[in-house]
Amino acid sequence: MSSFIGDYICKVDAKGRIVLPASFKKQLDEAANDTFVIKKDIYEDCLVLHPKDEWQRMVDLLRQKLNPYNKTHKQFLRGFFMDTAELVLDSQNRLTIPKNILAKITWKQNLKLVAQDDKIEVWNPETYQKSFDENQFQDIANQLFGDN
After folding, report:
1. Do residues 3 and 118 make contact, with C-beta atoms less than 8 angstroms apart?
2. pLDDT tens column, 84-141
3. 77 and 62 in contact (C-beta within 8 Å)?
4. What is the average pLDDT value for the chain, to the nearest integer?
5. Contact of 110 with 4, CB cutoff 8 Å
6. How far apart are CA 85 and CA 37, in angstroms?
7. What is the rounded distance in angstroms from the CA atom of residue 115 to the CA atom of residue 48?
8. Which of 114, 136, 137 has the alpha carbon at shortest distance from 124?
9. Would you give the DSSP letter of residue 4?
10. Burial of 132 by CB count in 10 Å (0-12 exposed, 13-18 middle, 19+ buried)?
11. Is 42 exposed, middle or buried (0-12, 13-18, 19+ CB in 10 A)?
12. Alpha-carbon dihedral of residues 116, 119, 122, 127, nearest 10 degrees?
């Protein structure tokens, strides 16, 4: 199981490629086979890179919980799998993000890769900074772990 730590700014080249930071490459479990699945996040204005083995675990969980013959479940599955792509690291540790998926978020020339345990979020650096409220984080930490 991959577990990522860190955050990095990456430049996007004209072909939509980014170099996966070396520390993320080291933290990638061998079971992922240098392969990721990318998709738009359900709640945030970012993309999410799932190592292939983690993606498969998530899909297996969905199969256990959802009935593809239930109309609501089917609509969820359609939305969940919409605009996904499999990405494979090339020999220079680059990932090519399809332009239709990259267009799902607002960005200029750099992206911020942010570790989220078993996945990596891909953000416009300015959007990421605006989305994080330290006071809100402290309030949530207090609610979850403080004395109540």
Report:
1. yes
2. 999 999 999 999 999 999 999 988 889 999 999 999 999 999 999 888 777 788 888 8
3. yes
4. 92
5. no
6. 6
7. 10
8. 114
9. B
10. exposed
11. exposed
12. -30
39 three-state secondary structure: strand
Q: What pLDDT does 114 receive?
A: 96
Which domains, from first to last, does the chain contain? 7-145 (3.40.1550.20)
Query: Which residue in 38, 56, 41 sits closest to 1, CA to CA?
Result: 56
Instruction: Classify the C-alpha dihedral 10-11-15-21 as positive or negative.
Output: negative
Rounded to the nearest 5°, which phi and psi values hold at 121? -85, 145
Overall size of the chain counted in residues: 148
pLDDT at 24 exceeding the cut of 60: yes
- pTM for this structure? 0.90
SS3 assignment for 66-125: CCCCCHHHHHHHHHHHCCCEEEECCCCCEEECCHHHHCCCCCCCEEEEEEEECEEEEECH
**Amino acid identity, position 128:** Y
